[in-house]
Amino acid sequence: MGLDDGAALVVRGLVKSFGRRVIAGLDLMVQPGEFYALLGPNGAGKTTTLRMIAGLMRPDAGQISVFGRDVLADPLGAKAIMAWLPDEPLLYDRLSPMEYLEFVAGLWRVAPGLAKARAEELLETLGLWAHRHERCEGFSRGMKQKTVLAGALIHEPRFLLLDEPFTGLDAASARLVKEMLQARAAAGAAVILTTHILDVAERLATRIGILSGGALLAEGDLAALQVHAGVSSGSLEDVFLQLTAA
Amino acid sequence: MFGQAGFLWLFWHELRVLWRGSILVRTHKYVLAPVIIVGLLFQAVALALGWAIIKHPLPLVEMVLVANLNLFFFGVLMLSRAMTAAIDVLYARGDVDFLLASPIEPGRVLAVRMIGVGLSVAAPWALLGGALANALAVLGQVWALAIYPMLLAEGMVAAALAFAVVVVLVGWVGPAAARRVGHMLALFMGVFIFALGQAPRYVAPEHLARFWQGLMPPAGAPGVLYIFGRGMLGQAGPLLGSVAFSLALFLLVWAVLEGRFAKGVITAAAYRPPGAAARQTGEFRAMPFTAIFMKHLRLLSRFPGVASQTVYRSLTLVPVVMILGGRLRMGGGVAVVVPLLVFLAGQLGLFFISVMVGSDDSPELAASAPVGRTLLRQSALLAAGYASVLLMLGPVALVVWRAPGLLADLLACIGLVLVCNLGVGFRLPIPLIRAEFGKAQKGTLLGLVLGLGVSSFWAVVAWVAVEPHPFAWLLPA
């Protein structure tokens, strides 16, 4: 059994040090269907947190569970329902998008017929169909980003960890990706994203956490954050700057 | 140190980047001591060779021919190396746009790049030839030190020609194909030198003598053709003439390219979206092992230089085929092919696994998947083993045909050398791929040294297994 039945993500007492403490006793809980934005200034520990949740880095202390699966005790079980999208696209330049999706679908054991249908649908939706058999080495940053997004979605993960997912995307592609992610959340998946574009977080996220010095400074929707920051109104940017200024 | 961005400052920056990316800096500390010892031994051998050269001096015309031929071989190999280096510094390292966006004069950037490439391709030959030159100089033949300015000048010519050829080729066929041309040039030269070395085995002595006689310069070696050879022999006029010619050619190419480089036309030629079409051969499978295995084979087959590097390593097959075909007779008979094939299998395995580990741009993608580490390791090892075995099938079939009694020992030793070297290459891949801008290069010289040691060890074991007399190969056939 997991730490908290029913929650998509439960993080308790997470600690990580690289010489100095980067994550200092972080607690986090995300529910299914939630779109959670993890914000913070540079070096706040966002990427380290996501990497530990994705099972790529072991914490010094603490517990992580994803949909009841303990990431530390059963990493493969947890990874099976997760997708992790780092800030730099994890792509093989000498593979085509179709070959890349074939590889990713194989890693996540997606049934061949289903994988092929999903790959075709994703490539079509993301505007990559005409380039499906071209090697990624000549692709723009946006095309690479869309290819890895297709890879992250091909196994229909219940839990998505997205580190700066909109980098390099044009306005139309960014809107399309937002809609796809919202659709995943509406279908019961949980999405955690980090971004420095606060407008995106303000419009997309159902809940926002602000991380600084390896610990959560504040958490909640915009109204809750405004209360926490002691401001009666203002954008997320105003609240963020107020909270992280100290 | 902060400084004004002048030519020397930029040159210092280039040298620093080249040095930090060099194999000597990144290599394992335990390799440096053996490398120094080997270097000293090499210098000692060069001293003995220098002594022999002085004791048995060749006529001037023969010396000029030898110097000219060496310069030709060095030049072609330098050109090949300079072509891949030029592609790297113009298109792959990714910092040209960064530098062009700065207020540094673009002509300086290009000049520094060209000089850097020239130095980097001349340096290995200067180290190699320098050992003999140093030995000769110590023995009183100071003229031999002319090899240093001559090789430096040749490096600059190679760099200039490489930049000119690469700019044309990349604009025409793209950086990947241009890189392949560079690799093929090195391959052809390697095969040519190898074939020349083997010529006494398949060319009648009188024909060979006539061939060399035809190349011999006339008495005194007059004429432009021999100016470089005479320069290397330390004759002041030809030496100065060769250096001046090299400098003039270098400046000419720089002047021709500088304008286009400043306008960004040269670097822009590499951008050719969309990417080259890939032949879709696979299909979706719900099996992580197959997915990783296929991915490794695809990346291996698309690795630039895979064909030339494989052929290079497979030159061992030439004596094997000649021995099995009865064209070459050695002490120990056909059994000699067993250690040769075992060595080849070890080197192929080491190369393939190094390519797979080195060209895996996104290891964290597989790490984030629900796949155990053991499976990741096994699939890479098996893919490299599969590629090696595939290439060894032909030679093994030849052994089955000509000497079936050797098969059991051959297969056992091939299996053992592959297991060992795949393990070595997986943990310590040999350096094959230059790092992109801002990234560290994968690979270590330790892997290369260990892998060579493992291949040699199992080749010796194989030889001892098939031939009771370990020195039989030295005996007359």
Descriptive overview:
Chain A is of the alpha/beta class. Chain A is 37% helix and 24% strand. Chain A has a 6-stranded mixed β-sheet with strand order 6-7-8-3-9-10, with helices on both faces. Chain A has a 4-stranded antiparallel β-sheet with strand order 2-1-4-5. In chain A, helix 3 (97-107) runs parallel beside helix 5 and helix 8 packs parallel to helix 9 (236-245). In chain A, 50% of the residues are buried. By secondary structure, chain B is mainly α. Chain B has 2 domains: 7-268, no CATH class; 288-471, no CATH class. Chain B has 20 helices and no strands. In chain B, helix 16 (337-358) packs antiparallel against helix 20. Chain B starts with 6 loop residues before the first helix and ends in an 11-residue tail after the last helix. Chain A binds chain B through residues 54-56, 76-77, 79-80, 82-84, 86, 90-96, 98-99, 102-113, 115-116, 119, 131, 133-140, 151, and chain B through 176, 271-280, 282-288, 290-292, 294-295, 298-299, 302-303, 359, 361-362, 364-372.
Features:
heterodimer, A: alpha/beta, 10 strands, 37% helix, B: 477 residues, mainly alpha
For the largest beta-sheet of chain A, the strand count, sense and barrel status come to:
6 strands, mixed
Total helix count of chain B? 20
Give the termini separation of chain A.
Answer: 40 Å
- How confident is the prediction overall: mean pLDDT of chain A? 90
Q: What are the low-pLDDT stretches of chain B, counting only 5+ consecutive residues below 50?
A: none
